[in-house]
Amino acid sequence: MKHVLPRRLRRSRDYGFLHSNAKKQLSLVQLVLNVMVKAVEPVIRPKFTCRRCGESMKHIAFGFLKPT
After folding, report:
1. d(Cα 1, Cα 31) in Å, to the nearest integer?
2. Which of 57, 60, 30, 35 lies closest to 46 in space, CA to CA?
3. Are 30 and 38 in contact (CB under 8 A)?
4. Are 17 and 26 in contact (CB under 8 A)?
């Protein structure tokens, strides 16, 4: 229960330039403060090939099985 906020208390990141929809405002704040943030590099995933035909397979979803 350490990570649960008390009643009627909101997270500060839900407001202002930390809000998830405030990307333009965040970039303006970074420009004013002269802070350059590195671009995130995409993760390169390994390609899976079919055992029968050898063609590459498409990723539809990633999931995990629950241990029983």
Report:
1. 38
2. 57
3. no
4. yes
